[in-house]
Amino acid sequence: MDGTTPVSENELLFEELVRSVHDCAPIEALELADRYGERIGLSGITLHLVDLQQRLLVPLTGGPALDVDATVAGEAYRSETLRLVEGDGELSLWLPLRDGADRMGVLHVRAPLLDEPTLRRCQALASLLTLTVTSKRAYSDTYVLRTRTRPVELRTEMLRAFLPPRTLGTSRGVSTAVLEPAYELGGDAFDHSITQDVLHASILDAMGHDLVSGLTASVAMAGARGARRNGADLAELTASVEQALVDWLPERFCTGVFTTLNLSTGEFAWVNCAHPAPLLLRHGRLLEDALERAPEVPLGIGEVLAAEPRTVHRIQLEPGDRVLLHTDGVTEAHDSEGRMFGPERFADFVIRATSADEPAPETLRRLIHAIHDHQHGSFTDDATIMLLEWHPDDGVPRPRLG
């Protein structure tokens, strides 16, 4: 006896599936997964991806789309937990598909019986299919075609090519974002990334609503990413964005906020370039003006390059704090009678969701829909929201905000 554990038939089947999906086209990977499901006793599987506006869950292999707000499938997506339903002589299991912290859709599994080993295999299958979709959508339009309900405008196509996933994070912190109008974006954009223990996040609002607006936001994002990946601090990063805009788009400018959150210590740093001030939520309330600072001019104005560097502001967060970044299209959204959505309603929406322990991505999904409904479905300006959370669990005491 060499002490090794024998490999079961089901393990060999799963290993075969993992090896096979690498060489498959996007839909062929689902067909392989369906055959694997049959061999482990499942009646069938269907993968649903969420559409661009997070209103529908669209089956990749055909069939009706499911409403995120009114179905069991949508409940699994919204809550990020599995849901089990019994009916028609078999069990129906809905598993959320998540790439890290980013919600992608749900996997529907049908089976006459679901014991614990089979449930674990379904969860492993959901994880594998999530990784498969993530890797293959980088070079295939198959998934994009399924998740758009209508064509996007040229400027939107260009800008969306630069955007990162909606959500990313670790056990200590999360950044999540939404933006509308999904199919007619002008110049709003967001970016986020994690480097070791630091969460980087930025939000941009370029002047105008034309193709060059999207190009302006894209150049600003590229300038920020290049600087970040070269190890620049916030002041250097902002200067890099400034230089990129002056060099390549001298007649255009944009506003923006560039931030870092140290996930170990909770230090939050930011540079605000003529943008609406971030909002700080703590213990179920908005801390008025906590992140208000003296205004600075927009990005892209050449005279700034010869002046003093941008000011980097710093504060110490407390565990559980949430920071909201937004463009003016959020708070200035107005209905047919001119009533603004407003910063108070904006902050109160997030506070109520926090009290209900709602996942941050779900809070922003509902919030952007509430702004959409406030304007009766018509966005007069881009509206972008980012929500940053810090929630360490090491119990280390930290200083309070002064």
Could you describe the 3D structure shown?
This is PPM-type phosphatase domain-containing protein. Keywords: Hydrolase. One of its GO terms (molecular function) is phosphatase activity. Residues 170-390 form the PPM-type phosphatase domain. The protein has 402 residues and is of the alpha+beta class. The protein has two domains: 9-145, Beta-Lactamase (2-Layer Sandwich); 152-390, PPM-type phosphatase domain (Phosphatase 2c, domain 1, 4-Layer Sandwich), CATH 3.60.40.10. Helices cover 34% and strands 26% of the residues. The chain has eleven helices and 17 strands. The protein has helices at 9-21, 26-39, 72-79, 116-136, 142-147, 154-160, 211-229, 234-248, 328-331, 343-355, 360-374, and strands at residues 44-50, 56-59, 66-67, 83-87, 90-99, 102-111, 167-169, 173-180, 188-195, 198-206, 254-262, 267-273, 279-282, 285-286, 313-316, 322-326, 383-390. The strands form three sheets. Strands 3-2-1-6-5-4 form a six-stranded antiparallel sheet, sandwiched between helices. Strand 9 and strand 10 (198-206) form a beta hairpin. It starts with 8 loop residues before the first helix and ends in a 12-residue tail after the last strand.
Structure keywords:
17 strands; 2 domains; alpha+beta; 6-stranded antiparallel beta sheet; disordered C terminus; Beta-Lactamase; Phosphatase 2c, domain 1; about 400 residues
CATH topology type of the largest domain? Phosphatase 2c, domain 1
Our measurement of the CA-to-CA distance between the termini, rounded to an integer number of angstroms, reads: 65 Å
Quaternary organization: single chain
Total beta strands: 17
Strand order of the largest sheet: 3-2-1-6-5-4
> Low-confidence segments, ≥5 residues, pLDDT <50?
395-402
Tally the helices.
Answer: 11
Into how many domains do the coordinates divide? 2
Please state the average pLDDT score: 89
CATH structural architecture of the largest domain: 4-Layer Sandwich
CATH superfamily of the largest domain: PPM-type phosphatase domain
- Assign a percent range to the helix content: 25-40%
Shape: globular
- Which class do the helix and strand fractions yield? alpha+beta
- Give the C-level CATH assignment of the largest domain: Alpha Beta
User: What is the radius of gyration computed over CA atoms, rounded to a whole number of angstroms?
Assistant: 23 Å
Order of helices and strands: HHEEEHEEEHHHEEEEHHEEEEEEHHHE
